[in-house]
Specification:
This protein is α/β, with parallel strands linked by helices and about 350 residues long. The chain has twelve helices and twelve strands. The chain has helices at about 15-35, 50-55, 60-70, 90-100, 125, 160-175, 190-205, 220-225, 240-250, 290-305, 310-325, 340-355; strands at about 5-15, 40-45, 70-75, 105-110, 130-135, 145, 155, 180-185, 210-215, 235, 260-265, 270-275.
């Protein structure tokens, strides 16, 4: 990429967000040096931190910086101080997704050999698991019209054909580069939106005769995720189901601290990259946060938004090597601090490049 400056907006957010984003930035800086990348970092506020300073969970200045960037790396939003408040930190993340027009959330889940003992599932169930959850991100119940009151409340679940088609194509394209299988998850036995989802995905599948499609109801999918996870390649689903299933999938590698994500929009628009985990304010500032999910999210950023798959692969390999070398944080059953985990990744990255 030599010579082309790519603008990266860092949004540390709340809780452990500043710690894990800081770690990921140092890894990105090491990768940029090793692979001759020109990265320019800017920083903005979001979530509770932004509410405290400006009263808004997504200040206009942050939104502007995001629109003008090539990619956005976010830490986490949320703080118990705002539970039940009229303005919540999480609203900043939803607004940012809308602002960037990101509609497809990619959440890879793999079980590394060094983590088999960390999973609550039997090692023989988890070994070799490598799946990708593609979650529709801007429709459904999260964004539907809401009515809230003390005696009744409602959340409208709404999807258009276009919304289903575009995220389905992302899933089928991803499957072509993997094992060639898509499992579409819905609740078509109950929900009208799911019945439309089911029909539209089947129509899109005809454009991909080289990809196998099967369908599962969401309750069956939840069961198979922990009973037979190796049956999955790409899981395609709507917003609410995708949120729940991807959090459930955290049991496979043993911790949510291992799950990165990429949120992508139309080609050429900035992607949003973030760990799946929350802000974990109970461990903020004491060096216990697992930075791996954010570092892996930074690798996805290099691959999907910054055009550097080689550097992305090197970071992913360095994370594997760091963990195999024993740099496991507390959530993974080890004692490594945030800084020690980060330093291990940078060390293995430099060693791999030097070879």
């Amino acid at each position: 990429m030599g010579g082309e400056v790519r603008r990266v907006l860092l949004l540390p957010g709340d809780g452990i967000g500043p710690e894990v984003v800081g770690a990921a930035r140092e890894v990105l800086e090491a990768a940029s040096s090793a692979f001759d990348l020109e990265l320019a970092f800017e920083e903005g506020e979001i979530g509770a931190a932004a509410i405290r300073s400006s009263g808004e969970p997504l200040p206009e200045e942050t939104a502007r910086l995001a629109r003008e960037s090539d990619a956005v790396l976010l830490g986490a939003v949320g703080h118990p101080d705002f539970d039940g408040a009229e303005v919540r930190p999480e609203a900043g993340l939803l607004a940012l997704r809308r602002e960037l027009g990101v509609f497809a959330n990619l959440r890879p889940v793999s079980a590394l050999p060094s983590l088999l003992s960390s999973s609550p599932l039997k090692p023989e169930l988890v070994e070799g698991v490598d799946l990708l959850i593609v979650r529709e991100l801007t429709g459904g119940i999260y964004f539907g019209e809401k009515e809230e009151g003390t005696e009744r409340a409602s959340d409208l679940c709404l999807y258009s054909r276009e919304e289903v088609e575009r995220v389905a194509r992302v899933a089928f394209e991803a499957a072509r580069l993997r094992k060639g299988r898509v499992t579409s998850v819905d609740k078509a036995n109950v929900l009208a939106t799911s019945r439309m989802w089911h029909r539209v995905v089947a129509e899109v599948a005809k454009e991909y005769p080289d990809v196998e499609l099967d369908n599962l109801l969401v309750d069956a999918a939840a069961m198979f995720l922990v009973r037979e996870p190796s049956r999955f390649d790409v899981i395609l689903t709507e917003n609410m189901f995708g949120d729940i299933l991807s959090d459930e999938a955290a049991v496979l590698p043993g911790s949510m601290g291992m799950l990165p994500s990429a949120s992508l929009g139309e080609e050429g628009s900035p992607g949003l990259f973030e760990p799946v985990h929350g802000s974990a304010p109970d461990i903020a500032g004491i060096g216990r946060a697992n930075p791996y999910a954010t570092i892996l999210s930074a690798a996805m950023m290099l691959r999907y938004s910054l055009g550097s798959p080689e550097a992305a692969g090197a970071i992913e390999g360095a994370v594997r090597s760091a963990m195999e070398g024993g740099a496991l944080t507390a959530d993974l059953g080890g004692q490594a601090t945030t800084q020690e985990a980060k330093e291990a990744v940078i060390r293995h990255l430099k060693q791999a490049v030097a070879r």
